[in-house]
Design brief:
The protein has 522 residues and is an alpha+beta fold. The protein folds into 4 domains: 112 residues, Arc Repressor Mutant, subunit A (Orthogonal Bundle), CATH 1.10.10.10; 134 residues, Rossmann fold (3-Layer(aba) Sandwich), CATH 3.40.50.10610; 100 residues, Alpha Horseshoe (Serine Threonine Protein Phosphatase 5, Tetratricopeptide repeat), CATH 1.25.40; 129 residues, Tetratricopeptide repeat domain (Serine Threonine Protein Phosphatase 5, Tetratricopeptide repeat), CATH 1.25.40. The protein has 21 helices and 14 strands. The strands form 3 sheets. A 6-stranded antiparallel β-sheet has the order 4-3-2-1-7-8, covered by helices on one side. A hairpin with a 2-residue loop joins strand 1 and strand 2. The longest helix has 30 residues. It starts with a strand and ends with a helix.
Amino acid sequence: MRYRFEEFTFDTELRELHRGAEIVAITPQVFDLLEYLIRNRERVVSKDDLVNAIWNGRAVSDAAITTRLNAARSAIGDSGEEHRLIKTLPRKGFRFVGTVSEAGGLPGEAACDVPAQAPALPLPDRPSVAVLPFANLSSDPEQEYFADGMAEDIITALSRFNGLFVTARHSSFTYKGRAVDVKQVGRELGVRYVLEGSVRKIADRVRITGQLADTASGVHLWSDRFDGGLGDVFDLQDRVTERVVGAIAPTVERAEIERAKRKPTGSLDAYTLYLRGLASSYQDMSQQANDEALRLFNRATELDPGFAAAYGRAAACYAYGRGVGWTPGSVDEVAEVMRLTRRAIELGKDDAIALSSSGWALAYVVRDFDQAAALIDRALSLNSNLAEAWHSAGWIKAWLLQPVPAIERFARAMRLNPLGPRVRGMRTGTAYAHFLLGQYDEAASWAARTLQEDPDFPAALRVAAASHAMAGRQEQAGKAVARLRQILPALRVSSMRNVMPHRRVEDLARYEEALRRAGLPE
């Protein structure tokens, strides 16, 4: 793309700024900043937008941003006082306000108007993603197949998320070998997010980069790079696909949740209610937030009685409430969970989220471990990259006294979503599995990782107290129990049978004894 304004030509392909026939010296980062401002000239660009787009979200001082802006202004004959082309709007951001034409041809030639754009395709009712073919930056043509294979594997893996609309390969691969603007791709394919990437071979190693952009703003939401050896190309491809998909799905979910929060109350649909329910369930793990999440999921099913995942999430709210100790698991609660999970399973036979949420609730509230395990296995066969299904599978293995498989499943969950809102439960589950193995120091260490992030996480406090007690660290065990009783004054050793749903009551005997030693009342 070539942009023209005043006497300047800004060439994004050659990465050159011309003033008439003269090339203006400009650093790469200032070029990127100027390009971003011009490309987004129809709106005010915030400081956060600039940091995300130009600095990939790294911490940057205001002085550094100001320095780059002043350099951009200087390159195009503007100034911080005049604001003729780049305007600063106090407390809002920046905007390129010059008159711009988009043109083809070489600098100095007559401008050719860009053909009128085709009408933008409407966005689907789900978050939508296009995975563009990865660029082969190597001289080795063999890497072309590897690059194409990377994109194809990611498309296949993302397509397993029922909540995502993923553009088919034959559509996204029409951009192969073309320099594209993500906004243009968004308009032409009707998608909200675009994933781009590249592959570069260096000796016997390969470097793969990926970045996810919002097509409305052009802002990069996520980017990363991966290095590996070419000894087993297919293994490397699988590992990178897992890591990319494990990062992309939660990133899109977070972006959609933020979008749902900004939507006017008067125009809430079932999907927006569902996203707001997720936000509440992730919020602060409080009883109030859990109740609000349940209310929103139920409203979503009222508006859309066929919304399988919302039924499953509602059932999971009951499971979480029971796990923390807010609810005793009454007959009415069990009946409601059975109703919700039955609907989720009927409607969501191919919906991994509906099945895994239902399995979790059936195990925790109904204590039907066999059906729960079968549902989660089915969810993982549908989508092996669903972190929450691996998380639920880990707990079920622990409750069935299979701690080694439990640890493996928690590790897979954390690898797929290491920064997600449920990572506290994954770490705590790992701690409990080590407790079951009699590895009390390791168990206490994993519980401590959770408590560093959330000092009031009840499950982690329980495992910490029990592990310290069994390791003979009575003072640390007592402190954990004291904090636990401040949060949940009614908690007793006898209530562990409600909180920890082992198949057999006697399987809890060592855990109960450990908490007794730590000072939890009978």
